[in-house]
Recover the amino acids of this structure.
């Protein structure tokens, strides 16, 4: 990133915050609608020293981590078999397509009825979102493998396992990572929605709690935290993508 | 194995998979669990759907309420997203200033804004449209930006050698070249818009498909819940299909569009 771009970005953000602060002080008497950044910061500090923030943040992160890691493993395995065996693909496809086309948000009430309001339901939500994205992308990656590579593997007399490990998996890796990236954003949304609907901890819970008690500074703190979480995970996965599959050019931003 | 038997086997496998899955679901619901507040058989779901569609007509008001919100927010996001994307692509200064705000808004889980928008716009239509708008905006904006950025340089050079002025350059080269990208963005935003509708209607609504689903969830009305979820899925698939048709019609020079 060139330096000019960074400077302009910082200027833009700082000016925005300053205008917001002034606007909130001069024009609005009521903190309810738009609390100034300073009172948002105060609320953040208060939440942090009471340890509330830690608790909610850890809950969301843990749910996300459990769901995401299991989805990666199971998704890659199922996707691999779907890519390898056409018959298996045909059996699975109608169901995966159905799962894919149902907006997850609408299934959340059902998942909560089935798995309760605790942690498990949120892990399932994250799992479902990520797994579908990874399965579809892994299968596509295995199917779209350059046949020349497979011929190369044959002429090198690689065993089946070696072909999978050395040719198919690395070949499909960019696709798998794309699936993961798609999964991250959506899963974050899913976990927050599930926490909003019914939970006793987590950032989604905090969001609901603060909006129902009309505590706008706290609401904004939560929104900022969610924004930070989204930004960090997005950049991490982009970096991961560049590192694991450097031969693939990725767009500046990639739409979902 | 010749091609015809091959095709036959694959369609048999697909239908077999669906039938077996539904049968398993039916058995699970009727004989194993036997608890209508937990899971109901697909037969019950289909019956409920039939009733809501053709007997009581209960589904239509919800459908209309949701479509209204959806099309309003979706239309606004196209009107705002495409020009903004173009401006950002053509003017790097604007891009640099808008970029940090946009990236932040885009990567934040959308639901975080719902309570704030509700606070600002009230529980009427405004907040709902705003939530849908926010969901649809970014794929369209980003793809318009990207489409305009990756226009083939040779086309631009060609236009220069024909001495096209900037307006003609825009209308004849830049705009048509970015159409496939914009359409890809629109296609992506349909799903996001539907999710937005569901989120919006969950916060203080009295009708709409999202309301239907969440209310059914709260009252453990599983058949209605399934019908609502299925309605969302059908709408999503329909919208996707429509845009794909538009894509093949509007950009016949490309077999399939990339981007997004």
């Amino acid at each position: 990133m060139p330096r000019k771009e960074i400077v302009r970005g910082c200027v833009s953000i700082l000016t925005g915050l300053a205008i917001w602060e002034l606007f909130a002080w001069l024009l609005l008497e009521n903190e309810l609608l738009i609390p100034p950044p300073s009172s948002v910061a105060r609320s953040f500090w208060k939440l942090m020293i009471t340890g509330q923030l830690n608790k909610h943040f850890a809950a969301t992160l843990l749910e996300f981590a459990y769901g995401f890691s299991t989805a990666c493993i199971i998704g890659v395995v199922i996707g691999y078999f779907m890519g390898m065996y056409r018959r298996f693909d045909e059996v699975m496809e109608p169901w995966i397509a159905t799962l894919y086309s149902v907006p997850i948000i609408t299934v959340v009430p059902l998942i909560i009825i089935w798995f309760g309001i605790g942690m498990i339901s949120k892990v399932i939500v994250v799992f479902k979102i990520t797994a579908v994205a990874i399965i579809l992308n892994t299968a596509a990656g295995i199917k779209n493998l350059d046949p020349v590579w497979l011929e190369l593997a044959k002429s090198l007399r690689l065993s089946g396992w070696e072909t999978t490990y050395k040719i198919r998996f690395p070949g499909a890796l960019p696709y798998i990572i794309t699936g993961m990236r798609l999964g991250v954003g959506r899963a974050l949304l899913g976990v927050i929605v599930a926490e909003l609907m019914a939970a006793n901890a987590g950032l989604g819970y905090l969001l609901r709690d603060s909006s129902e008690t009309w505590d706008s500074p706290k609401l904004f703190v939560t929104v900022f935290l969610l924004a930070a979480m989204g930004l960090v995970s997005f950049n991490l996965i982009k970096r991961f993508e560049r590192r694991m599959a450097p031969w693939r050019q990725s767009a500046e931003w990639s739409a979902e | 194995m010749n091609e015809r038997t091959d095709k036959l086997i694959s369609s048999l496998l697909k239908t077999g998979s669906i039938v077996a899955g539904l049968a398993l679901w039916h058995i699970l619901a009727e004989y194993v669990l036997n608890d209508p507040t937990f899971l109901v058989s697909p037969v019950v779901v289909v019956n409920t759907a039939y009733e809501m569609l053709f007997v009581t007509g209960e589904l239509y008001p919800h459908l209309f309420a949701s479509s209204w919100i959806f099309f309003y927010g979706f239309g606004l996001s196209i009107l705002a997203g495409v020009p903004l994307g173009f401006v950002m692509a053509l003017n790097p200064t604007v891009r640099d200033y808008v970029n940090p705000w946009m990236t932040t808004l885009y990567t934040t889980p959308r639901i975080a804004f719902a309570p704030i928008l509700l606070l600002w716009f009230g529980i009427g239509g405004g907040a709902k449209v705003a939530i849908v708008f926010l969901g649809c905006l970014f794929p369209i904006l980003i793809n318009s930006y990207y489409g305009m950025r990756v226009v083939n340089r040779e086309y631009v050079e060609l236009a220069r050698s024909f001495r096209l002025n900037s307006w003609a350059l825009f209308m004849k080269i830049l705009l048509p070249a970015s159409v496939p990208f914009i359409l890809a963005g629109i296609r992506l935003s349909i799903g996001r818009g539907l999710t937005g509708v569901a989120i919006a209607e969950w916060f203080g609504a009295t009708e709409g498909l999202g309301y239907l689903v969440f209310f059914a969830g709260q009252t453990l009305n599983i058949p209605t819940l399934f019908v609502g979820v299925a309605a969302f899925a059908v709408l999503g698939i329909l919208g996707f299909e429509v845009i794909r048709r538009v894509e093949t019609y509007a950009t016949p020079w490309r077999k399939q569009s990339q981007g997004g």
